[in-house]
Amino acid sequence: MESFLDSLFTGRYDAEKRIILSLCEKGEAFSLADLARELDTSIPKITRIVTEMENAGFLADLGKQESASGRRPSMFGLNPNAGYFIGVEVGQNSLALAVTDFTGRVLHFQDEIPYTLTNTEESVLGLCATVRKQVRRFHLNPSLIRSVGVNLTGRVNHQTGYSYSYYISEEKPIRNILEAGFERPVCIENDSRGMAFGEYMSGIAGDSHTVLFLNVGWGLGMGMVLDGKLFGGKSGFSGEIGHFPMLDNHQICRCGKVGCLETGASGLALHRLITERLGKGQPSILSAAFKDGREINLGDILSAVEKEDVTAIECVEAVGATLGRAIAGLINIFNPDVVVIGGRLCVTEQYLMPPLLGAVNRLSLNLVNNDTVIKVSRLGKKAGAIGASLLSKHRLLNQ
Questions:
Q1: Cα–Cα distance measured from residue 344 to residue 380, given in angstroms and rounded to the nearest whole number
Q2: What is the pTM of this model?
Q3: What average pLDDT does the segment 138-153 reach?
């Protein structure tokens, strides 16, 4: 599939142009003198390169920089009108969708779009049709949609294009089917890594270079930005913190093993703890539904927490304490700048974080712990779709 970048990379100054795109990716603006220093080249040469990139529509003159003295230099950055990027987060029974411009600014966000993805080519193409229908409502110029990012649960190898949660066949990686459906380059990624990238680029992580993102939803996953780069491991299977065998609780995990962290620190664990207590007769807002045999889902539990149900709060606190033990170990291993807590359970922040932070302070090495800030996701439920959109741009510009 021919890339729109072909109009920029014509063999002349290609390496320098790629560096400039990378420098400007986070929305920064640079003067010609700044860029000349970054590329260790002359002002006349950088002027020619920037002029070519302006003429191709990739860079824009963003105006004069404020200066205490002397002439104010013009500042250059990505041209917001150079194109759009679509991000899609695939949930259990719904999709979330984000559109960003060329600078990474979020133009549109929509969640709770009904769709259930299954392991068939028809279902994948149906997902594409559903997203395209929604995007048409945003009245974007379809020719300016540059690429699409899709976050999927489970093991994802973005290089080969295979998802092992939605494995169609050996001959047809899911990315190829998505590219046929969208008629655009597609970047697939694990949902936790996509969220981590979203926070790193536009969320709460700021200028940090080593970021751990804990996706605490029904399951438990982790995305890692190490030294400024999203880390996927050899085959894209890194971050399976939920299946770290650290608990002696004799609980069978969804993976078939016993004692995985996910069995004590996830929405699944929260659900189990609640139903166990309800079964023992502990009073709760959920007691009547439980006695009637009605299904209690994660949304019901989170609603009970919001209504200050003591039983639900105690179970959230138990999850927070277990998660804090794991984070203490991660801090000792990675010495990160920031640990971000995201995913669906972060809405219980008021009750989740105190026992979590208490466990971290008690169990991590003080000298290492002092280097790390633990924060709750700023992007919240938008992290996945925004991260997918920004990651699709990142990989397109750095291919």
A1: 8
A2: 0.92
A3: 94
